[in-house]
Amino acid sequence: MAWRQGPQGQTPDLNIGERWSRGAIIERAVHASPRQPQREPEHSTRPEPPEVWCAEVFDIIEWRRFETVVEALFAQAGFETRSQPCGADGGIDIWLHSKNRGGAAVSIVQCKHWTVWKVGVKPVRELRGVMAAHGIARGQFVATSRYTADARAFAKDNGIMLHDTYSLLALIGSRDPKQQQELLRVALYGEYWRPTCASCGLKLVERTAHESGKPFWGCRSYPKCKTMMPMRRDPTDAASGAAGTRA
Ligand SMILES: [Zn+2]
User: What pTM does this model have?
Assistant: First the structure.
């Protein structure tokens, strides 16, 4: 993906009622004026988003925005990237194609926006299975959590590179300042905190449970789509609420 420069000073809106591909979000975020802060409503208690890359950025973004940042990161590294549409995961979140090898697929990426667990060997084995099914020798497992010793050993023997929050931050830190800013804009553009429905790709909306009165995230196309996601006390925590739905 090329980092095309768009007209400066425009403020493209992300309508949350529409499906946005990761590529479209990357394009729009990069085209937005540098460091264009998203105005929060007056009553919002959400903290100001960080101005530089740090672990907190991965904590406050929702799961699909995490995948978008990962895709942008690989695009910066020179790969042609291809996203999987929502609901069509199949164990692959991003395809990486080599520009030097005639656009051939060279690696597949699985992303897990998990904040609590250590990634065990099982999902890494599953990625190996998907790689074998597609005849791809290299895989990338990208998570916001650490990995068990078993997972690390298996990955090492099977052509899989493991990334966690800290290796991602190191990778981002190795990019030039302009690239780092572009990635930060991709992370924090629009409603970065509002989770996306894993089934239909729409942004979720706040709803209230009839009986308990507790708030939760629900799909705007309910009752057609019944996706639900727990909500913590503050929408900032939405990202971690997404963890369980993508296991
Ligand atoms: Zn849905």
Answer: 0.81
- What is the whole-number distance in angstroms between the Cα of residue 61 and the centre of ligand 1? 19
Let me know whether 102 and 222 are in one domain.
Answer: no
CA–centroid distance, residue 198 to ligand 1 (Å)? 7
pLDDT per residue rounded down to tens, the chain (247 residues): 333 333 343 444 566 677 778 888 888 888 776 555 555 554 455 668 899 999 999 999 999 999 999 999 999 999 999 987 766 667 799 999 998 888 899 999 999 998 667 999 999 999 999 999 999 999 999 999 999 999 999 999 999 999 999 999 999 999 999 999 999 999 999 999 999 998 888 899 999 988 888 899 999 989 999 999 888 655 444 444 443 333 3
- 110 CA to centre of ligand 1 in angstroms: 21
Q: Which domain holds residue 228?
A: 205-246
Q: Cis omega before residue 215 (within 30°)?
A: no
Domain identity same for 33 and 139: yes
HSE of 9 in the Cβ direction (CA atoms, 13 Å)?
0
CA–centroid distance, residue 162 to ligand 1 (Å): 30
- Comparing CA positions, the residue from 30, 38, 32 lying closest to residue 12 is 32
